[in-house]
Each structure stands twice: as structure tokens, then as C-alpha cells.
């Protein structure tokens, strides 16, 4: 138990506090027919986070200027990648633009723009998915001690019967006498 706790703490310590690695498109990866505006919306990208593009050899990643992003041109790419698993470090605040270099793919939706938030606002400490286990006390109820049942009622019953018997005997005695 103690060893497990140590391992968990080491794992947590190994992950930089607020850096997030975003798999672009999540399970769909970097592909056609994915709406990356939708994917990026609602996400906050911070300095130190990473974008990871996972794609087949049919695709590539080209980081481009905003104007080339708008016109879907990859010919003036700032940087191009074809390794099918491209990790882009978001090292500074500002906008970053990516398109697929394969002809026609950008216009089919393979384009992504992200806004990297300023480093001034640290992201809220997201709770790590790890179970911050509430130590569930194994409460196997020890059976409540049975209170010794009072024998008063029983004794009274016996007493009552005794009285009844006495009355009957007395009655019998009176009958005999009568
Ligand atoms: Cu493509």
C-alpha cells in the first residue's frame, strides 16, 4: 500500500505541472473530414503545451502564416513535417497556423489554428485524473453486541401463571370445602 502511494507520487511528480499534450483531432487524428475549429474550440492552449499531429503518409503538417492558412497554401511553409507523429511545442503566446501539405486536403478541412494564451495566467491546476483516493474504511460491521434480553417479562408471565394457579388451587380448595 505504501509502495503504491510512492509510485503514484513519483508519476505525478514526473509530469510537468500544467503542460498538456493535445492529440490534434483526438481519436480521429490529423485527417480529412475533421472539423479542427470545433476540436480547438473550448480548449485553452498555454505556453508549454504540445500539439501532437498523428497522421498517415498521405498527409503532412505545414506550419504557415495566417494569410497562407486562409488561402490554404503550404508552399511558403514556415516549417514542414512528414514524420506522421509531429509534436509541436507551443513556446510562446500568439496564434499558430497549420495546414496539410497534400494538395486539396486543406480545403477539405485539414487546417488548424490555435491561440496560445499568454504565460501570465497560469492555467488552473487541473485535477490529475489519478484517483486521489478517498481511503474507504473497510467497515465490515462487527455484529452489534446482542443486548441481553431482559427476563422481566418472562418472570412476570411466570408470576402471572403462578397467581392464576394459586387462584385455581384456592378455588379448588374452596370447592372441596363447599
Ligand atoms: Cu492531408
From TrEMBL:
One of its GO terms (molecular function) is metal ion binding. CDD domains: Phytocyanin. Residues 1-19 form the signal peptide. Keywords: Glycoprotein, Metal-binding, Signal. PANTHER family: BLUE COPPER PROTEIN, UCLACYANIN-2. Residues 116-157 are annotated as: Disordered. Residues 118-151 have a biased composition (Low complexity). Pfam families: Cu_bind_like. This is Phytocyanin domain-containing protein. It comes from the Eukaryota. SUPFAM superfamilies: Cupredoxins. InterPro entries: Cupredoxin (IPR008972), Phytocyanin-like (IPR039391), Phytocyanin_dom (IPR003245). PROSITE patterns: PHYTOCYANIN. The keyword Metal-binding applies. GO terms for cellular component: plasma membrane. Residues 20-118 form the Phytocyanin domain.
Amino acid at each position: 500500500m505504501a509502495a503504491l502511494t510512492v509510485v503514484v507520487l513519483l508519476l505525478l511528480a514526473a509530469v510537468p505541472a500544467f503542460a498538456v499534450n493535445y492529440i490534434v483531432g483526438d481519436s480521429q487524428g490529423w485527417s480529412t473530414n475533421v472539423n479542427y475549429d470545433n476540436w480547438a474550440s473550448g480548449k485553452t492552449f498555454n505556453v508549454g503545451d504540445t500539439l501532437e499531429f498523428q497522421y498517415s503518409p498521405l498527409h503532412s503538417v505545414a506550419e504557415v502564416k495566417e494569410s497562407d492558412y486562409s488561402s490554404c497554401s503550404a508552399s511558403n511553409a514556415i516549417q514542414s513535417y512528414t514524420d506522421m507523429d509531429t509534436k509541436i511545442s507551443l513556446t510562446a503566446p500568439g496564434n499558430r497556423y497549420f495546414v496539410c501539405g497534400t494538395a486539396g486536403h486543406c480545403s477539405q478541412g485539414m487546417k488548424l489554428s490555435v491561440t496560445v494564451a499568454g504565460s501570465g495566467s497560469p492555467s488552473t491546476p487541473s485535477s490529475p485524473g489519478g484517483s486521489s483516493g478517498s481511503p474507504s474504511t473497510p467497515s465490515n460491521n462487527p455484529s452489534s453486541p446482542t443486548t441481553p434480553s431482559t427476563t422481566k417479562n418472562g418472570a412476570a408471565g411466570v408470576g402471572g401463571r403462578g397467581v392464576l394457579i394459586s387462584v385455581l388451587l384456592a378455588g379448588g380448595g374452596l370447592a372441596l370445602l363447599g
